[in-house]
């Protein structure tokens, strides 16, 4: 019992320090023209954005503002007639509460799993997810194949699964490609990818989904950033590469912008210290090269979640 209490106190102390950089940061929900909000992305941290239901070409975004920049940006929103509402007063406190909740759900999930490597009650680390993929391939060898695609910049194994009743030998079957967690902090996306795998392989909801289609699913496309978001910075979004000029001060590349689609056409994306840095060249990141190399199928649909 004493050891358990000491472990919990150590965990709380680490969590306190890990989120200290976000002490006093506030979250605001803003609404405005999609073009205006898109232009903000290189200047402030947009946590999420979605279309509004009431107006066309309008977005609703959740943004993070530090104490130092809050006044400047609230004035900007007023000048642009963009409505805003404060939704959280201290981001660090929210992140500390999230840590405690995750610790509790992991303990509960561990007790319930009964030998399974993955459940649906909590978030899992990169190696745990890779282990789960290997477990599925061993249990369902006629349906699941694990591909060790490449190593990330920091040397982590990027794995994905190929799900097929015909071992991808029937070229008439369309292929669905899904990747998750190219943005490291979006922890909810690997469980979505894993749940899709579960519904296709374990708890089969419709056999036609594998009889008529082949699947490629990458549950953690950016493992370095994903692990860094657990250990160091909860809101880290980019990769962790240091192959570009200025990388010592500003490491990492925005994976979504590292493809060769409109690469080099947005000036703000050329700055390595922005959250939307596109990298020194298209496909400079091993993580995006894995996705690129998966994609060339005659008939396919690609979903990045």
List the helices and strands and how they pair.
Layout: H1 2-18, E1 26-33, H2 34-40, E2 45-51, E3 58-65, H3 70-79, E4 83-88, H4 91-112, H5 126-139, E5 144-151, E6 157-163, E7 175-179, H6 189-201, H7 208-211, E8 214-218, H8 223-231, H9 286-294, E9 300-304
Parallel strand pairs: 7-8, 7-9
Antiparallel strand pairs: 1-3, 1-4, 2-3, 5-6, 6-8
Structural features, described:
The strands form two sheets. A five-stranded mixed β-sheet has the order 5-6-8-7-9. The protein has a four-stranded antiparallel β-sheet with strand order 2-3-1-4. It is built from nine helices and nine strands. The protein is an alpha+beta fold and 305 residues long. 34% of the residues lie in helices and 19% in strands. It has two domains: 24-89, Alpha-Beta Plaits; 117-305, Aminopeptidase (3-Layer(aba) Sandwich). Mean pLDDT is 92; it is low at 1-13.
Low-confidence stretches at least 5 residues in length (pLDDT < 50)?
A: 1-13
Secondary-structure element sequence? HEHEEHEHHEEEHHEHHE
The CATH topology of the largest domain is Aminopeptidase
User: How many structural domains are formed by the residues?
Assistant: 2
From the spread of the alpha carbons, the general shape counts as globular
Tell how many strands the DSSP assignment holds: 9
* CATH H level, superfamily name of the largest domain: Zn peptidases
Can you give the helix content as a percent range? 25-40%
Q: Note the beta-strand portion.
A: 15-25%
CATH architectural arrangement of the largest domain: 3-Layer(aba) Sandwich
C-alpha end-to-end distance: 41 Å
CATH class designation of the largest domain: Alpha Beta
Radius of gyration in whole Å, from Cα?
Answer: 21 Å
Tally of helical segments: 9
Could you tell me the mean pLDDT?
A: 92
């Amino acid at each position: 019992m004493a050891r358990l209490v000491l472990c919990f106190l150590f965990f709380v102390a680490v969590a306190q320090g890990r989120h200290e950089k976000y002490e006093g940061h506030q979250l605001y929900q803003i609404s405005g023209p999609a073009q205006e909000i898109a232009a903000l992305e290189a200047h402030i941290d947009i946590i999420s954005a979605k279309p509004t239901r009431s107006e066309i070409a309008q977005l609703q975004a959740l943004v993070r503002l530090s104490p130092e920049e809050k006044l400047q940006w609230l004035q900007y929103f007023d000048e642009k007639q963009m409505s805003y509402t404060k939704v959280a007063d201290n981001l660090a406190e929210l992140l500390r509460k999230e840590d405690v909740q995750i610790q509790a759900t992991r303990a509960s999930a561990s007790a319930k799993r009964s030998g399974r490597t993955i459940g649906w009650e909590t978030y899992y680390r990169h190696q745990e997810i890779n282990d789960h993929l290997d477990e599925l391939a061993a249990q369902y060898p006629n349906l699941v194949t694990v591909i060790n695609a490449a190593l990330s910049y920091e040397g982590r194994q990027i794995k994905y699964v190929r799900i097929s009743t015909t071992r991808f030998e029937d070229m008439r079957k369309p292929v669905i490609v899904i990747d998750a967690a190219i943005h490291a902090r979006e922890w909810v996306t690997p469980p979505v990818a894993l749940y899709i795998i579960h519904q296709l392989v374990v708890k089969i909801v419709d056999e036609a989904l594998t009889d008529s289609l082949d699947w490629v699913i990458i549950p953690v496309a950016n493992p370095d950033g994903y692990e860094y978001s657990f250990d160091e910075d909860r809101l880290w979004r980019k990769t962790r590469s240091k192959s570009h000029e200025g990388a010592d001060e500003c490491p990492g590349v925005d994976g979504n912008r590292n493809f060769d689609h409109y690469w080099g056409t947005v000036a703000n994306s050329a700055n390595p210290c922005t959250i939307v840095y596109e990298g020194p060249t298209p496909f400079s990141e091993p993580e995006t090269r894995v996705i690129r190399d998966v994609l060339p199928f005659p008939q396919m649909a690609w979903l990045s979640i």
